[in-house]
């Protein structure tokens, strides 16, 4: 019998580790590609030890057959991946804003390795993503993410069928909300580029012999960086409000 081979405490710890480990593997800040998998594993093991006594009373009993472990662990991993992935989608707002700002400032071809995305990306997008991660930890916003790990057992109890329809709806809302916030953050640059392009068109019509593109390009980059410097603080505050609102959905009473 499984009850004889696997004590109840070990079973509870294994079940908690399945969800906590899945969350930390994709959660922003803790689950970044540049963090060693061993470090993430150690953090997940330590956090599971802390969370298990808190959520222990809500966990199911040890199943009589070993085969019944598979759907339990699979459901916990699925819930963990969804929660961590939803938080990851919140950070993508800065990536969207960085791409839009880069193209509107004629810096779209300045590519740089984005550690948060694990691939090449626009230079300003990589900068904004790293800035967002820094702001999350400097403002102790990561405490909300860790609190969401514990509260997830109230919102999504263990040993229950994951609500796939709710997951799909929340994921869609997270993607749409992050894209909207990314466009709102980059709105000053969209307006700036629109005015600049209209002016370039008028100058080109009035003076066709002038090489408008070569003359305006340095000015566009300079003014774009100046506007980026002026609005950088507001970008950070706007992102933190968006991130806090998204994480609070996974906190009881939020």
Give your account of this protein's structure.
With about 250 residues, the protein is mostly helical. The chain has one domain. Helices cover about 75% and strands about 5% of the residues. The chain is built from nine helices and two strands. It has helices at about 1-5, 10-25, 35-55, 70-105, 125-140, 140-155, 165-185, 185-205, 210-245, and strands spanning about 110-115, 120. Strands 1-2 form a two-stranded antiparallel sheet. A hairpin with a 4-residue loop joins strand 1 and strand 2 (about 120). Helix 2 crosses helix 3 (about 35-55), helix 4 (about 70-105) crosses helix 5 (about 125-140) and helix 7 (about 165-185) crosses helix 9. About 30% of the residues are buried.
Instruction: Give the domain tally.
Output: 1
Largest sheet: 2 strands, antiparallel
What are the secondary-structure elements, in order, as H or E?
HHHHEEHHHHH
Largest sheet, spatial ordering of strands: 1-2
Let me know the average pLDDT.
Answer: 83
Form type = elongated
Total of helices = 9
Low-confidence stretches: none
Helix content: over 70%
Strand residues, percent: under 5%
Number of strands: 2
Radius of gyration equals 23 Å
The end-to-end span amounts to 42 Å
Note the quaternary state here: single chain
Structural class: mainly alpha
